[in-house]
Amino acid sequence: xxxxxxxxxxxxxxxxCCRILxxxxxxVAQQFQYAVRVIGSNFAPTVERDEFLxxxxxxxxxxxxxxETDAALFSELHRKLxxxxxxxxxxSILYLxxxxxxxxxxxxxxxxSYAALFAQALPRDAHSTPYYYARPQSLPxxxxxxxxxxAPSSGSMGSSGISSVSLCGLSGPVPTPQPLLPxxxxxxxxxxxxxxxxxxxxxxxxxxxxxxxxxTTTSRGIPNTVSRNMTRSRREGDTGGTMEVTEAAxxxxxxxxxxxxxxxxxxMSNTENCYKVEGKANLSKSLRDTAVRLAELxxxxxxxxKYTDQRSLDRSFGLVGQSFCAALHQELKEYYRxxxxxxxxxxxxxxxxxxxxxxxSLTLRRLLVWxxxxxxxxxxxxxxxxxxxxxxxxxxxxxVHAYTKTGDPYMRSLVQHILSLVSHPxxxxxxxxxxDGELEDTYHEFFVASDPTVKTDRLWHDKYTLRKSxxxxxxxxxxxxxxxxxxxxxxxxxxxCHDQTPTAxxxxxxxxxxxxxxxxxxxxxxxxxxxxKIDAAYFETSKYLLDVLNKKYSLxxxxxxxxxxxxxxxxxxxxxxxxxxKPELVRxxxxxYQHNLTGILETAVRATNAQFDSPEILRRLDxxxxxxxxxxxxxxxxxxxxxxxxxxxxxFTRECMSHYLRVFNFLWRAKRxxxxxxxxxxxxxxxxxxxxxxxxxxGVLHQCHILASEMVHFIHQMQYYIxxxxxxxxxxxxxxxxxxxxxxxxxxxxxxxxxxxxxxRCLLDSSSRALLNQLRAVFDQVIExxxxxxxxxxxxxxxxxxxxxxxEKKKQHEIEVRCTHCI
Length: 823
Known about the structure:
Among the domains are: 247-352 and 359-390, no CATH class; 405-553, no CATH class; 554-646, no CATH class; 653-822. The radius of gyration is 48 Å and the shape is elongated. The protein has a two-stranded antiparallel ribbon. It has a two-stranded antiparallel sheet with strand order 3-4. It contains 30 helices and six strands. It has helices at 9-21, 29-40, 51-64, 68-82, 90-101, 114-121, 191-208, 224-235, 247-257, 285-312, 318-352, 364-370, 372-387, 393-402, 409-422, 424-436, 459-463, 477-495, 503-506, 518-524, 526-551, 555-566, 571-585, 594-607, 615-620, 634-637, 654-687, 698-740, 744-761, 769-822; strands spanning 266-269, 274-277, 448-450, 464-466, 621-625, 638-642. It is mainly α.
């Protein structure tokens, strides 16, 4: 086991020097002191701390050395390293390997490598921004700090940087490029051997020598002056079109085309809507085809730029649309960074006279490799632009979200980053709606719509609705319905219930509308975190609203009052009311006065158990006279009424009260039939003994008795059906649903189902009109039986009276005759 001294930095550094130089501790004392000074110094690299930029430099250095296989292998190894969280300071390790691999004894040429050119030509911030390593911490339209440490994540969601010049494709490394100049072949040594050799020679030379090399010629042995002259002579051509167009001229034209600017030899064809090489240009087919392939980036750039320029000035496009344009601008900005790098290298080549044949110079084939990833990104953005044409708001967010359903992680991360920016206004609308009940949707982008013309009494039913076309595809219909109910409940409490309780006291959840985790919760955990927020706000708000309606406005008590009075559930009250109203209701309807009937109603209330109801309920109970038709009696126009207002009118709407009125009239008429048949039975019992002396009426009275008994049986069966099969069963279902209701909509829906059920089962719907007519005919027959029996009884009693008078006169006459004979 090693002692603490053997693990100290000094001992380890000395062992490293001995291992690299292959000498004893005494022989490396000078080198060890120098290494201690270097490590303890405050030297810092002048390059940006960008892991991917260093990786790009290493790959381009390998390509410059004609080691394309090693470059592809390094790219794959770096990808695997990045996907694992073992190392934290990957940039430092890669930068150390890059620095040690460069031999400082070799005097660098004017243009040593592509990476060196980038470092010399660009400021500190002109570099690649490959990936967000973690989820975006906020939704503002800005990239995170490049100097922040990065955490590897295989499922990163952010901009992968359109300026990332990489050999990696969407699902792996691109095919290894062939040697850049024809006729050349190079057997690249292994990456490990090369790095070990260069690292050892680098450190050994640094510690032992400080004499720079005197070599000043450029690579391949071409002097600078010759190279500069050759480059200029190749790039300066005759404008007459007879001289062959060089590849250098095409490279310069391509860089302009990348920005949407026509070059000398490559121009935009308006008829074919594409970039084409001038027909008079003398080019080989391979160069012409390569130039056309590269020019596609310019066409894609123009397509995206045209869309953003048009939509950015259109205010009616809304906040979601402007966020989409801002996301496109952000991606174009990354694309422009790549172009600035390429222009800087080209300008440096011109200034220093670098030959096109050098390993570090720009060629069309190198541009194909370096623009592979940017082209894929531009194609994705152009497809998004086409798919989003004519869309705005939530519909636009749905269109962007549709492109996240792909198996390509590179494309998915790009679209998810754009979607997080596009959805930021929708999230702002949503959180403000569910936590404050406020809806500021100037451009009609949110999926909740408000109608300012609707009055307060119809707020719950008509003021707020769902715009189904604006519901984003990443929000389900159930979630959108809950979002609508949350904000609607808050507004209902404030405007209708006049409850100004702060929302924070209603909803026992922390408000997180500005939380950096909102976008991540929405797109990575829709079923848990985001769903949890919606459910918590929904349950808390709905529960508070139902508590206010039940405790402050006695919603359930009013519902039971409807059952007792309008559905004739209070039997003693209804029977006593009929007894009191009979003298009034038998009169013609035109002779009735509402104040007289109201007084009778109050008398019936005081004389029955109805007096023990709440004064608030009894105050709402009233008499209503229906429209009078010719020949109507009081029974035809009388009805009870129940006044509703305020929040309870949301449940008991005008339509509901009209249903209650129809059901009351039906039940009142059926109850009257029962009342009439009861009077008929009383008449039978009272007159049976009196009319025994009139045997001629016995047959007629017997038939009346049988008919009345059949009618009583029919009415009793109908009353049983209405009372138990219809009212009680339906009421029990309604009450159970109301007890389990989670929001006001559930209560309203259950109440409407209850009314529809009793309307249908009481034969009051349109499909039962024929049966209802037959039933009314039976009711009319009951009334006619009562009238006929009353007429029979009157006639029989009159006949009985006459017979009694006749018998009395007969007796008197006989007495008088007897008296006369006696005299």
